[in-house]
UniProtKB/TrEMBL annotation:
InterPro entries: PPM-type-like_dom_sf, PPM-type_phosphatase-like_dom. Pfam families: PP2C_2. Transmembrane segments: none annotated. This is Protein phosphatase 2C domain-containing protein. Residues 137-372 form the PPM-type phosphatase domain. It comes from the Bacteria.
């Protein structure tokens, strides 16, 4: 009678339809065998599991599978009252391919006259703080061997000033990669002038002077600062227009967005002068993370989800002054500039750009709370640019644009 019971319980386990949940290549996997219905059955081992990269222990399969395929696994089990006689039950484990592996990574043409590296990074000093910037070609471009259209530039300027500029070339513009390069280089070059910066500095002292100056004088000083910034942006447009003419392009072929932050620490605090055209944000985060400010007006929503480019003459209209910002703050934890390759997957909507919880989640992501366990360490930062480059390789379904991210910390 006992042998009959043992045989029946073993056969019931052998015949039960056991389905292992699917795994994904290169992602942590865990599956526990629920044996409540078979209290007298024990799993001894699982054959063929080693070829998946997974291990079996204490009724649990776990690990990171590295090969996408359908794997046939032989479960060796026994009855607790007949431990010397084991049986085999075969199950199947499907390991799905890593979505990243389905995308090709074709190098761009290094012989092209307007060649641009597929990725770039920078780390260094910025005012009395530090900065790291990375720019990575998106998967959509890499899959077709196209160029990175994003770009950035960082410069220390005379008189304690620093500038960082970021641009996102339009995917529909055939020379967007050159347009984005030109705008960041030319705007930084324009402000690399002691004369211009001294003039801006004098007016800033008037605006934030603690002495009793009339509002009329302060207002005039603010207008002078905006005028200097406007001249820098107009210079960028003229550079693009001249380049297009000299090379028989249409200026539309150079379509690109542009944002920049011109920063100096004064006795009364940090002054941050900003400009933006397009859908790339500039955000300032307070020292205790209690407040986040969007320092530029983004060209989304108002234009039905479209954007504006610095190459468009209509940008230089009566509302141009609203694109400039002037902020004075005692201190801050982070100043962040990014293109939509980061903004779209990580923030999704514009209203989240001033939501402190969204930014805490974002920096938690940077701190390693992500599927790739990629961490950017702002303390042990000797190779922070490489850490950030690795982080920007994150997977986000449907978001495969170029990614550029600048963080002042």
């Amino acid at each position: 009678m006992e042998k009959a019971v043992i045989y029946r319980e073993k056969e019931e386990f052998k015949e039960v339809h056991l389905v292992l949940k699917n795994a994904s290549s290169k992602q942590f996997y865990e599956f526990s065998f629920e044996m409540d219905d078979f209290p007298n059955i024990k799993i001894k081992s699982i054959a063929n599991l080693q070829e998946t990269g997974l291990t079996f222990d204490n009724n649990k399969i776990s690990g990171i599978p590295y090969a996408s395929s359908v794997h046939e696994l032989d479960i060796e089990f026994y009855h607790i009252r007949d431990q010397n006689n084991t049986e085999i039950k075969t199950v199947h484990l499907l390991v799905n391919a890593d979505p990243k592996d389905l995308w090709k990574n074709i190098p761009s043409d290094a012989k092209d006259v307007y060649y641009k590296r597929d990725e770039a990074s920078y780390q260094g000093k910025f005012s009395d703080k530090k900065i790291t910037v990375v720019s990575k070609r998106g998967r959509a471009h890499a899959h077709e061997g196209k160029f990175r259209d994003d770009d950035f530039a960082v410069n220390e300027l005379p008189g304690g000033w620093s500038i960082v500029s970021v641009a996102d070339g339009a995917g529909s513009a055939v020379m967007a990669r050159e347009g984005s390069r030109l705008v960041v280089v030319s705007v930084n070059s324009f402000f690399n002038s002691s004369e211009i910066l001294n003039e801006i500095g004098k007016n800033i002292e008037i605006v934030y002077n603690t002495s009793k100056l009339s509002e009329e004088i302060r207002s005039e000083a603010r207008e002078n600062i905006i005028r200097s910034l406007y001249e820098g942006v107009l210079h960028v447009y003229h550079v693009l227009d001249k380049t297009a003419t000299e090379n028989s392009f249409s200026i539309k072929d150079l379509h690109t967005t542009l944002i920049f932050a011109l920063v100096k620490k004064f006795d009364f605090g940090y002054v941050i002068l900003t400009f933006g055209v397009g859908d790339c944000p500039i955000n300032l985060i307070s020292t205790d993370f209690s407040e986040v400010k969007l320092l530029n007006t983004m060209d989304v929503g108002e234009f039905g989800g479209g954007t504006r480019f610095i190459t468009m003459s209509e940008v230089f209209n009566d509302s141009m002054s609203s694109r400039f910002g002037m902020t004075c703050i005692n201190d801050f934890s982070y100043l962040v500039l990014m293109t939509d390759g980061i903004y779209d997957p990580k923030f999704i909507t514009e209203n989240k750009l001033e939501d402190t919880d969204s930014w805490k989640t974002f920096f938690g992501d940077l701190n390693g709370h992500n599927d790739d366990r990629a961490k950017v360490d702002f303390i042990n930062d000797t190779d922070i640019d490489q850490q950030l480059l690795k982080w920007t390789d994150f997977w986000s379904r449907g978001n495969h644009d170029d990614r550029t991210l600048a963080i002042i910390y």
